[in-house]
Amino acid sequence: MNNFETKVLKKLDEITSLLQSKKVIRKPLELEDYNFKINSDGWKKITVDNEEYLENKEGDVWELLSEECRGEQLFTYDAAIRETKKVGKLIPTDDELSELLTEKDDLKNIKYSGYRVTNASFYSLGSTLDLWSSSPSSATGAWRRTLATSYSTVYRNAHRKANGFSVRCLKN
Fold this sequence. Notes:
Elements: H1 3-21, E1 44-48, E2 51-55, E3 61-64, E4 73-75, H2 77-86, H3 94-100, E5 115-116, E6 122-123, E7 128-136, E8 141-148, E9 154-160
Antiparallel strand pairs: 1-2, 2-3, 3-4, 5-6, 7-8, 8-9
């Protein structure tokens, strides 16, 4: 490749980068291969319905300790937004999740970690994966997706922000 071709390719890269940063064109959307997690060192151990979990000091993130989903974490909506923002990650919007997840096979490395409701009970461990979107549905709710072992379809519905669901971020 000669000097002129090198300069042209460099200029094209600069233009493409500028257009992407201005949202004129965008990179194809893709989800990370694993659920989002944060450091759980120092969290307290809790027991609910004979299941042990770790809970962060704010009481809004829980780490599963059962063998089937050991290490998976569930976040309230606000905790998900806060923790992903700290590390520069983005949770997909409701529209982006609609584009990315049309059937269960669209998601890699599924861990069916269930969910946590506001009365501190955990449900559907081993049978569902519930993922937050970054899109609120109301002042107290946000859009989520549910994948179940028994269905190939991905379900969309709004749920209370205080519940605990998994998070799958967009790849950078």
